[in-house]
C-alpha cells in the first residue's frame, strides 16, 4: 500500500473537498517553480519506456495515461502534474469569461464507493488568465484544452463562446476537447443533439482549418446517452471530421452507490465520477469502438481506480485513458502502477 493511501489520503478526507483542493493546488503551484522538486517527483513516479509511447492525432504521447479535465481548471499546475508521470494533462473546462460557478458546497465525497459528486458549474478565471500561465510553460508536457460556454450564454449563441476559447488557446495547447456534456451548466447537454452538435463542430473545424496547422479536436460526451444518441454522435464525428471522442464525462445517475437514499438525496444534484461510473463508461467506449469499426480514436475516462480498470478501457477500444477521481483517491502511484502493468503486458 502506498504512502499516499496509508497516511495522506486519510488526512485529506478530513477536510472540506473544495478547500483541500485549493490548498493542494497552492502546494503544486509553489512546487512547480522548482526544477529540482519536479525532478524529484518525476524520479519517483515517471516511467519511460518505448513500449508506452503512443502516436495519435499526430501527437507522440510518452505514455497513454493522462489527467482528465476538471482538476487543473485554470492551467495553474500542469508542469508539476506532468512530473507525476502523466503522459498528458487536460486543462479546463475554460470559458471566455471568468465565472464563479454554482453556489457552495458543490463538491462531495462518497468515500466508501471511491466516488465524487460535483456541481461546480464551469468555475474558472476565464480563458485569457489560463493563456497567461500557458505562456510560462516550463516543460514539454502535452496539454489539452477543454473548452465550454459561459453559463449565461444562451445555447443559440454558444458557438461564439467555443470559438473564442479555441482562438485564444490555439497557440498554447496541443489538442482541444469540446465539452457539451457537463451536467452542471443549465441546458448544456442539449448541444449533444445531432443538429446543434453538427453546427458547433463544423464551425470549430472551419476555424481550425483557417489556421496554419489543424490541431486535433475531440468531443467529450456524457455516459447518460442511449444507443440512438450514440449513433448520432458517431455520425456527427465522421461528418465533421473531428479527431476523436472523450468517453465519458460524469453521470447524473446514482446507480452503484452503496449509500442510503436519504444520504444520496442530501448531497443533491451534480455529476458523479469515480468507481460507480466504471462499467457504464466502458460500455460506451466499447459501443463506439465497435460501431465505428475502430475508426474513431477514443480517450477512455470514468471510474479508473486500478491498473485493471485502465486495461479494461484499453481493451474496450480506448487508445488513451484519463484519470480524475482515481488520482484523488489513489494518488500518483496509480499512474505509475498502470504504466508498469502496461510494460509488463507488453503495452
Q: What is the N-to-C succession of helices and strands?
A: HHHEEEHEEEHEHEHEHEHEHEHEHH
Query: Strands across the major sheet, in which order?
Result: 3-4-7-8-9-10-12-13
Radius of gyration: 19 Å
Corresponding CATH superfamily:
Aldolase class I
Mean residue pLDDT: 96
- Which range does the strand content fall in? 15-25%
Low-confidence stretches: none
Q: What is the helix fraction of residues, given as a range?
A: 40-55%
CATH architecture: Alpha-Beta Barrel
What would the principal axes of the Cα set say about the shape?
globular
Major beta-sheet overview = 8 strands, parallel, barrel
Number-wise, the strands total 13
- Helix count from the secondary structure assignment: 13
Overall number of domains = 1
How far apart are the first and last residues' alpha carbons, in Å? 24 Å
The CATH topology comes to TIM Barrel
**Class based on secondary structure composition and strand pairing:** alpha/beta
What's the CATH class, please?
Answer: Alpha Beta
Amino acid at each position: 500500500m502506498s504512502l499516499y493511501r496509508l497516511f495522506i489520503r486519510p488526512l485529506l478526507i478530513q477536510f472540506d473537498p473544495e478547500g483541500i483542493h485549493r490548498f493542494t493546488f497552492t502546494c503544486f503551484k509553489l512546487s512547480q517553480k522548482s526544477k529540482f522538486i519536479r525532478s524529484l517527483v518525476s524520479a519517483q513516479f515517471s516511467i519511460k519506456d518505448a513500449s508506452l509511447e503512443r502516436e495519435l492525432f499526430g501527437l507522440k504521447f510518452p505514455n497513454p495515461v493522462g489527467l482528465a479535465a476538471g482538476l487543473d481548471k485554470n492551467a495553474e499546475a500542469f508542469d508539476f502534474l506532468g512530473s507525476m508521470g502523466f503522459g498528458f494533462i487536460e486543462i479546463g473546462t475554460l470559458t471566455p469569461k471568468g465565472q464563479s460557478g454554482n453556489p457552495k458546497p458543490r463538491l462531495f465525497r462518497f468515500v466508501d464507493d471511491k466516488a465524487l459528486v460535483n456541481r461546480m458549474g464551469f468555475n474558472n478565471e476565464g480563458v485569457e488568465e489560463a493563456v497567461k500561465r500557458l505562456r510560462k510553460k516550463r516543460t514539454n508536457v502535452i496539454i489539452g484544452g477543454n473548452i465550454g460556454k459561459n453559463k449565461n450564454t444562451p445555447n443559440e449563441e454558444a458557438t461564439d463562446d467555443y470559438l473564442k476559447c479555441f482562438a485564444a488557446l490555439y497557440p498554447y495547447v496541443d489538442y482541444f476537447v469540446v465539452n457539451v456534456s457537463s451536467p452542471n451548466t443549465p441546458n448544456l447537454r442539449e448541444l449533444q443533439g445531432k443538429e446543434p452538435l453538427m453546427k458547433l463542430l463544423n464551425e470549430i473545424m472551419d476555424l481550425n482549418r483557417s489556421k496554419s496547422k489543424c490541431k486535433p479536436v475531440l468531443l467529450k460526451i456524457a455516459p447518460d446517452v442511449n444507443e440512438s444518441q450514440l449513433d448520432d454522435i458517431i455520425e456527427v464525428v465522421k461528418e465533421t471530421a473531428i479527431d476523436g471522442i472523450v468517453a465519458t464525462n460524469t453521470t447524473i445517475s446514482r446507480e452503484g452507490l452503496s449509500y442510503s437514499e436519504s444520504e444520496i438525496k442530501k448531497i443533491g444534484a451534480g455529476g458523479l465520477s469515480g468507481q460507480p461510473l466504471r462499467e457504464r463508461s466502458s460500455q460506451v467506449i466499447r459501443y463506439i469502438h465497435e460501431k465505428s469499426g475502430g475508426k474513431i480514436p477514443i480517450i477512455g475516462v470514468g471510474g479508473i481506480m486500478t491498473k485493471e480498470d485502465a486495461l479494461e478501457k484499453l481493451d474496450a477500444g480506448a487508445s488513451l485513458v484519463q484519470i480524475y477521481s482515481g488520482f484523488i483517491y489513489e494518488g500518483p502511484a496509480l499512474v505509475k502502477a498502470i504504466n508498469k502493468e502496461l510494460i509488463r503486458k507488453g503495452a
